[in-house]
Every structure is written in C-alpha cells, then in structure tokens.
Amino acid sequence: MRPLRGVLVSGAAFIAVDWGTTNRRAYLIEGGEVVATERDDMGILSVPAGGFPAAVAGLRERHGGLPMLLAGMVGSNRGWHDAGYVPAPASLADLAARLVSPEEGVAIVPGVCRDGDERQDVMRGEEVQLLGAVAAGLAPGDALLCQPGTHAKWAVMQDSALADFTTAMTGEMFALLKGHALIGSEMTGEVDADEDFRKGVEASADRDLLSALFGVRAAAVLGRRAPGAAAGYVSGLLLGSDCRARITQPGQQVHLLADGLLARLYSAAIAIAGGQAVVVDSHASFVAGITRIWDIKA
User: Fold this and answer.
1) Most C-beta atoms within 10 A of its C-beta, which of 13, 127, 133, 186?
2) What would the pLDDT profile of 181-240 be if each residue is shown by its tens digit?
3) CA 208: distance to chain centroid?
4) pTM of the model
5) Which of 157, 193, 176, 164 is nearest to 266 (CA)?
6) To the nearest 5 percent, what fractions of the chain are helix, strand and coil?
C-alpha cells in the first residue's frame, strides 16, 4: 500500500464513497456538486474475501470510470486496506496528506485516533463528516459536535480542527440489553421521543445507571410500568447518561449530525440534559469534507 501521488485533479469529477460496516453510499461529484448518488447494503461485511477490487470496479464502471475517494470502514483492518490513523488534533489537510492508494485511481482516507496515556479512542469515517460540517459552515470552528449511532461520537472542534473526541457505545448497549439482559424481555414497544423516553432521560440525572437499569425489571414485577414502555425508558436512560457526560455548561450548543429518529431522540435528550441541539445535515457534511480533501490533495 502506497501514499497516493498524482491521482486527484482539483475541480475534476470524482466518485466519493462513504463505505461503512453494513451500508455503502456513493456520490458522483462534479465541480463540488453532487450530480448522482446510489446507496446499497453492500457494507464491508457483505463483501466476500478478495472481493473489494471487483466491488470498486463495478462502482467505477457505473459512473464513467472516474477516480474514486473512499472513506469509512473500508479503510479499517476489517475492510479492504488498513489506511491507518491520523492523531488528533487533525484537520482535513492532515487527512489529505495521509491518503493511501490500494490500486491506480483509488484512494482511501485514514481515520483519526486519540492515543494518550490515560485514554485511547478511534474513529473511521466520522472524521470526514465532522470536519466537513465545519468546512461547509454548518458548524463553527470551535464547537461540540455529536454524531449518534451504534457508537456515538462526541467531537471537540477547535480552530476548525478535530481536537479531541469520545466514543460512547450507546446504541450497541441498547441492543445488548434488549437481546441478552434480564430486562430484555421487558424492552418491548417502539422507541421515540415520547413520555417514556423523556422519563428515562430525566432519571439519568441520578447518575446511577446500573441501578436504574435493574429498576426496569423491578418496575415490571411490581406493576409500576405499563407493558411496552420499557424500551423507550431504557433508551432515555442510556442517551441521557451519554449527553449528561458531555454537556458541561447550561445551554451548551451541541451540533448534531443526524436526521429522523436519532435527531429527535438526541435533540430531546440534549435539551433535558441542559443543552441546546442544532441539527446539521450529515450527508452535506460528508460531501463537503470529502470534496475538500479531494481539492487539497489535487
């Protein structure tokens, strides 16, 4: 694997791909504008051993054989090629300087790591969106950003760079509790930013998460919580605990890269925890970030 040299041409059309664990989204970008997109479930776990060159070739063929810039888990040790990590603080220029090229006309963006003596953390794919949000003016250069998901990312931006970040296993913990914990059988019903969810966020103020989780079982046994209410309550507990750990000042703004249900849930949790959510278009952020990397490297 070699550093990319001479492949990117500023202003020229290219294919940008946000290639995650379970999904893949491709953008055909010309002059900084998205002219076509496609999305499928061909995440890295769906690509057979040795199948990445063919998968990439198929994408390029459908979009005129243009050069390609990839980001996300495709560059992990479980993907096509491990593109490594740039240490925080990291800028878009730092990422552009560390692109790797597994084959002619294709480059992969590295991830970002935090590797201190007391705490280690990594991200891959989210860095393009976080830095892109700032580059596009969707978030200020000094801000707290949150990208919810299975592993929620909380990023501190300083001077338009990704200065520090924390990953919380919020979504994964909910799935683990529902699928394997004693309280899992109680976690029925849909989750939304409703009364049950808000009660969970409010209960997280006690900062005794483990006790509160067992209380879900106790409330069911004693008939104190209606059937179908526990899933929303547990989601509120988890998201509330996550938000309260990050929001350090009353009224603190959190720029939230999310839409749909996750935007509703985190907006409600952030507000109850004392912050103020500002919803940011995550797709526009990715396009801005990946295009800026392309232009810098040209």
Assistant:
1) 127
2) 999 999 998 999 999 999 999 999 998 999 999 999 999 999 999 989 999 999 999 999
3) 27
4) 0.92
5) 193
6) 40, 25, 35
